[in-house]
Each structure stands twice: as C-alpha cells, then as structure tokens.
Design brief:
The protein is mainly α and about 500 residues long. Helix content is about 65%, strand content about 0%. A hairpin with a 2-residue loop joins strand 1 and strand 2. The longest helix has 27 residues. About 5% of the residues have low confidence.
C-alpha cells in the first residue's frame, strides 16, 4: 500500500503540471473567439483538482522509486492523462448539440499523447483553431513524455526520478545516461526537443504556413505524431517546399535525441557517425524512398519522374518514421508500395527517438544474432559474440530483445484477430493493428490516409486504443504489470 500511495502522489503532481497545458488553447480560443474558452477552462480546473487532492493527501508517502514503481507510474500516467484531456472535446461537442462519444474522445486524446496521429474526427478544416491546437499540444507533450518533464523537477520533492525515466525512455539503451544526474538528463533532452521544435515552427512559418498551422504541424512533425489541421493532411497545402521542410524534420526526429544531445554538446557531427543507428537509418530512408519513387514511376502511377519522386519520398519518410502525414492517398497505389511502407514503419525509427515500433537498433541486433546462428550451423564451435560500439552485447540483452519481438508479433496478431472477429475486413484489420502498435496513425483500407478510424465500432476502437498504449510504452512496461511477481512484497 505505501508503494501505491507513493505512485499516486506523483500521478497527482503530474496532473497538476498537465493542467497548465490547457492554458495555451485557452489563449488561442480567446484570440480567435472560437467559443471554446470554457471547454478548456473546465479541463484546466478538473486536472488541477484531480491532481491536487491525491498529491496533498499522500505527501507523507514521498520516497525513492523502485523499478516496479516506475512501470506502474508510467502506465497509470499514460492512462489517466488522456482521460483528463478528453474534457475540452466532450464539453465543446456537447455545447454544439452534437455529443461526442467518450470512446471516440478517449481514442483521440490517447492518439495524441502516444503520438499515433490516428483520428476519429472529420471536418478538421472547420474545427475551432483551439481544438486543433490542443490536439497538436498533446502530441508535442507526448513526444518526449510528460513524465520526463516531471522528472526534471522531482528532485525538488525529494523523489528520485531514475526509475521513471528508465520506464519512459524508448529503446533498448535505457540505462545510458547523458549527464551524471537524471534531472540534468531530462532537462538536456527537453532543451534539444524544444530547440528543434522552435526551428521547425519558424521554418514552416517562413515557407508559407500561417503561424497556428505552423505550430500544429511542427508539433506533429517533431513528435512524429502526424495530426494535421486539414482532413487532407499535407495534400491540402500542395506545396513541395512545405513537404521538404517536413521531410527534413521527420528524419531529424527519427534519429536518437541522445545523439542530437551529444552532437550539440560536442559541437560536432561526429556523434552521428559514432551512433550505431543514424547512418543506417538515413541510408535506409534514402534507398527506400528512391525505390518507392522508382516503383511509382515504372508502374505509371505518376508518369512524371519528379512527381513520382515527390510523392514516393514524402510518403515513404512519413510512414517509415511512424509520423503518418500524407500528400497522396498511398493506399490506392499498387499493393506492393503500401505494404512496403507499413513494413518500414515497424523498425525504421531509432531507439531514443520520438518514433515507435520495434526500433532499428533492436532489429540490427536481432539480425546480427540470426546471422551468428546461421554461421554456427556450419561452424558449431565458433566464438563470435555480438558487439555494439566495441562492446560485447550481453546474453540477457539479446534474450530480452527476443522476448520483446515475441510480444510485439503476438500483440499485433492478437489485435488483428480481435478486429477480424468483430467484423472488420482482414486487410483493414491488419493495417489498423500495425498502425496502432507502431503509433503510425493511418493504415490501409477503411483506415487509410483518405479515411479515418471513425468507421470502426466502439469495441474495435478500444482494441486500437489499447494497441496505441502498448506500442508507446513498448509492450514490456505494460505486460509486466500482469505478472504475479510484480505485486508481491
């Protein structure tokens, strides 16, 4: 019980911090006079109240977190914060006389905070600017994780944050510290994230977007989230220059923020060369983008080679990095193209980036292990340990990667089967499962880039919502809560 009270104390603190996220859309609502001010005021007050009550009543239970506390805290936070975030959507649509189901509102906010970018809302072009801004803010906060921000100030409360950031940080290199103190690590990551965000926002603005549109698409780009203020996404702007800006920043944010931090600290690009992922991810994106572009040209989807390059490269980078922007309905391309894009979304993003999926580093190590096992069939006595950055990768790490891959495949298949059993067409079901677990957003078929998830029934929506949560928290963080040993002692 004391352990649960300690976690509840920090959840309350996180909710109080989260309350101030409602201030920006309140200001936007007042500026545009779009009638949403009281919707966001209600969310602000509720988040502040729901956070203050448990925080005040559990102050006596503040203590250093253990590993299991971090897992529980992260899962509860990612479940509770989207719940509070639904308030503006529910209040606004109810005030218009067109109530939004709670299931759909929770899916939308979970999609934002997990940087998935799947939506159930239509008519985004006519949605109040503050609501589009709110959806974007959820993505921006989710990109690095609201708890990482909290970790930077937790030492002020006498509560250690190392276990929280370990559970929150994506990828297999969780124990690597950028600076000696965990609070400094969190601040360093957020400074890099903020710096890239500001540059991205200004660039979108200078290239032609209105300031608010620039903010919305900046948040969707740096978080690799993919929400847009337009139903047609980037196709609505029909601007190659905006698409180039988006591609550049999607690639930047698909690389590890650890590497960005080190490059800025050393004032050298050598950090990217030393990174075990960066050069390979860049090469993969370039080769895949050119390959898809050539495929579209040879298939005469786009007879103009420049048009094929434009649409092939943009959509390849967008889907592979799990962003989910679209400047064309790629679901209508010959089947091989969309399937390749979905496959790339499974492993292209770097560990420590704002992307999701298996992550490139995991896939690299798994391929190295597979190659070694094939060699052992020929040379049974061979001794050739897997190495990374000149260090031998320990056996328990490799076994952990295999366990993760098994959980990943099992989760995608389970969600796929559940969607099929509830009546969804198999292709749409598989792409929806992959899009949810990879935090990609649009899939194929009925959930493709020209449609959205609103066609799914409530039960199917909940399956996809669970998939988004599992994917964002990298499966193990959630599944460990269902092991009997977690709750002992």
């Amino acid at each position: 019980m004391p352990r649960l009270l300690s976690v509840l104390n920090i959840i309350g603190f996180a909710l109080m911090i989260f309350a101030f996220a409602f201030v920006f859309p309140m200001v936007v609502g007042l500026w545009f006079n779009d009638g949403t001010f009281f919707s966001f005021l209600a969310g602000f007050l509720l988040s502040l109240l729901l956070g203050a009550i448990p925080w005040l009543f559990t102050r006596a239970h503040q203590r250093e977190l253990r590993a299991r506390d971090g897992f529980l805290l992260v899962v509860l936070a990612w479940t509770v914060l989207p719940l509070v975030a639904t308030v503006p959507l529910l209040v606004y649509f109810d005030s218009r006389g067109t109530p939004l189901q709670f299931t759909l509102a929770y899916f939308e906010t979970m999609s934002g905070l997990t940087t998935t970018g799947a939506t159930v809302l239509s008519g985004l072009d006519a949605l109040p600017p503050s609501l589009n801004g709110w959806r974007a803010s959820l993505m921006w906060l989710g990109g690095m994780g609201i708890l990482v921000l909290a970790v930077a100030v937790l030492p002020l409360l006498g509560v250690g944050g190392s276990q929280v950031i370990r559970a929150e940080t994506p990828g297999p290199m969780k124990d690597e510290k950028l600076t000696p103190r965990i609070a400094s690590t969190a601040k360093g990551l957020y400074l890099v994230y903020l710096g890239i965000s500001v540059v991205c926002w200004l660039t979108y603005w200078l290239v032609g977007m209105a300031p608010l549109d620039a903010y919305i698409h900046m948040a969707a780009t740096v978080s690799l989230g993919g929400f847009s203020s337009r139903d047609a996404s980037f196709a609505a702007f029909d601007s190659p220059w905006l698409e180039i800006v988006a591609m550049v920043f999607m690639v930047i944010c698909a690389l590890s923020f650890t590497t960005h931090f080190n490059a800025m600290r050393e004032k050298s690009l050598r950090a990217y060369w030393r990174c075990p992922e960066a050069k390979y991810v860049l090469a993969l994106l370039l080769i895949a983008g050119l390959g898809v572009s050539a495929f579209l040209w040879l298939s005469e989807v786009y007879p103009d080679p420049l048009a094929a390059l434009r649409y092939g490269m943009f959509n390849t980078i967008s889907v592979a990095t799990t962003t989910g922007f679209a400047n064309a309905d790629y679901a209508g391309w010959p089947t091989a193209g969309p399937l390749l894009l979905l496959l790339l979304s499974c492993f292209t993003a770097s560990s420590g980036s704002t992307g999701s999926g298996i992550k490139f580093l995991r896939m690299r190590l798994l391929l190295q292990q597979t190659r070694l096992e094939l060699r052992r069939l020929i040379h049974p006595r061979i001794v050739a340990p897997i190495q990374l950055l000149g260090r031998v990768v320990e056996t328990h790490v490799l076994l952990g990667l295999l366990a993760f891959l098994l959980l990943y495949v099992a989760t995608v298949l389970m969600i796929h089967l559940l969607l099929v059993f509830t009546g969804l067409e198999p292709t749409t079901a598989l792409s929806a499962a992959l899009a949810s677990v990879n935090n990609l957003g649009p899939g194929l078929g009925g959930v493709g880039p020209s449609a959205n998830f609103s066609s799914l029934d409530p039960l199917q929506i909940w399956f996809c919502t669970a998939g988004m949560l599992l994917g964002r928290l990298e499966l193990v963080t959630v599944f460990v809560l269902f092991t009997p040993g977690f709750w002992r002692h």
